[in-house]
Amino acid sequence: MKYKRILLKVSGEALLGEQQFGIDQVPVKMIAGEIKKAVDAGAQVAIVVGGGNIFRGMKNSAKLGMDQASGDYVGMLATVMNAIALQCALNQIGVQCRVQSAITINQVAEPYIRHRAIRHLEKGRVVIFAAGTGNPFFTTDTAAALRASEINADAMLMAKNGVDGVYTDDPNTNPEAKKLDTITYDDIIKNGLKVMDTSACALCKQNNIPIVVFDFKKENGIKEILDGKELGTYIS
After folding, report:
1. How far apart are CA 46 and CA 9, in angstroms?
2. Nearest CA among 159, 174, 137 for reference residue 232
3. Phi-psi region of 70 (alpha: psi -120 to 50; beta: other; left: phi over 0)
4. C-alpha dist (Å) from residue 76 to 26, 49, 67
5. Domain 5-235: what homologous superfamily?
């Protein structure tokens, strides 16, 4: 196995399915099934899930007359909802899972404690990190890079919705955009490629955590990455 411990970043939009809003059980069950394959193969899997399917702080706060900090906190609560939904889907297929929240919400999730999270992973449990970093003005991309660094992940896997890697431009609007099989952290920062936040990219670079960007709809995608197969875009 190429990577023993991974941090999987799942966008909130990946849980939309055919809906315009909310959580669709079809993609949730599909993602849970892919995670189970990785766990059964012996990988330690931690997850950070976004909340864009329910509320996107930076985008929606202005529409509702909120300041950005308040909007970001609403977005953090959205990630908790997604984390609980994914936890239920994993439990239903026999995968032990714990949700740890950066915001204290003891009725539904453990508080985030680094050593406890690592211990869960060592025992073969999936850990879902909810509520981002617990602070406004930071995206879930940055939260994913932070948690990957804290748990000493071997790699960060970014599951994209309908995009199978990093392109020179948006492939949905520019048919001439070319896919990049490998790229460096500096290339993303320097060229302003909208793969992830530059702060998240810089954090992965600082801690030498490779990033693999792939399409979450690819069957056996996570397992193939663990097996060392070339899939998506490799960032290092």
Report:
1. 9
2. 159
3. alpha
4. 23, 10, 15
5. Acetylglutamate kinase-like (3.40.1160.10)
Q: Which two tokens stand for residue 131?
A: 């509520």
Q: How far apart are CA 114 and CA 111, in angstroms?
A: 10
In the 8-state DSSP scheme, what is residue 200?
A: H
For the question of whether the overall pTM of this predicted structure is more than 0.90, the answer is: yes
User: What is the spatial distance between Cα 9 and Cα 173, in angstroms, rounded to a whole number?
Assistant: 24
Task: Kindly list the domain boundaries of the chain, sorted by start residue.
Answer: 5-235
Do 48 and 204 contact (CB within 8 A), yes or no?
A: no
CA dihedral 147, 150, 151, 156 (to 10 degrees): 50
CA gap 22, 24 in Å, rounded: 7
| Averages of pLDDT over each 10 residues, the chain, 236 residues | 96 87 93 97 97 76 80 92 97 98 96 98 98 94 97 95 82 82 90 84 95 91 93 92
- Yes or no: say if 159 and 224 are a contact pair by the CB < 8 Å rule: no
Q: How many CB atoms lie within 10 A of CB 137?
A: 11
